[in-house]
Design a protein that fits this description.
Elements: H1 7-14, E1 21-24, E2 27-30, H2 36-53, E3 59-62, E4 66-70, E5 73-75, E6 79-82, H3 85-89, E7 93-94, E8 97-103, H4 109-113, H5 115-120, E9 128-133, E10 138-144, E11 150-154, E12 160-163, E13 168-171, H6 172-175
Parallel strand pairs: 4-7, 8-9
Antiparallel strand pairs: 1-2, 1-5, 3-6, 4-5, 6-8, 9-10, 10-11, 12-13
Length: 183
């Protein structure tokens, strides 16, 4: 059995690694390598959201940036947006995203939908969690209501993916642009 690491030990160790790892309650989990379709969707979302947020107090970050969910949990979302001044001044660990987007893969889908979403819901700042499935072209968003309950918004048949927490929309054609090899 591998010895559990403290958060400080994990951060020091992680900064020396070539691969990314998530951290939860002392345990370390290797991140799987992404597929072309995963990278394409992340790139599309980064580009389109950055275009819309240019000049605003919010910024988009992707894949290599860490979010500290609790004192003992560090996650790497595929895409997230923060408008928090402390976050915008940090170099390594973000704590107050308002939007997190995970691009699903067959190996991570169950985790992203359940345990990872449960971890993200601990963030008081988080207003929206969106799941994008490149294989099925489904887009499902969960938004925190005024009653603090999360409501599902299935945008799979809509013209656009609405990111209500930041006032942005990305058409589904733009989300999935370049997915087909002949495109």
């Amino acid at each position: 059995m591998q010895r559990k690491m403290s958060l400080d030990e994990f951060l020091a160790w992680e900064n020396e690694q070539s691969d990314r790892h998530e951290y939860d309650q002392g345990e370390v989990f290797a991140m799987v390598g992404g597929r072309r379709t995963h990278g394409r969707v992340v790139s599309n979302l980064n580009r389109r959201l950055n275009e819309q947020l240019d000049g605003s107090p919010c910024q988009v970050f992707v894949e290599s940036m860490k979010i500290q969910v609790t004192t003992d949990t560090i996650l790497y979302p595929d895409v997230f947006v923060t408008c928090d001044k402390a976050d915008l001044a940090t170099e390594m660990i973000f704590k107050s995203p308002c939007l997190v987007i995970e691009v699903l893969s067959p190996s991570t889908q169950a985790y992203d939908r359940s345990q990872k979403f449960a971890l993200y819901r601990r963030l008081a700042s988080l207003q929206e969690y969106i799941l994008v499935d490149p294989d099925t072209r489904r887009v499902e968003g969960f938004r925190r209501g005024e009653d603090d309950l999360w409501v599902l918004h299935d945008m799979s048949q809509d013209e656009a993916m609405e990111c209500a927490s930041i006032g942005c929309q990305v058409t589904l054609a733009q989300v999935f642009q370049g997915m087909d090899p002949d495109a």
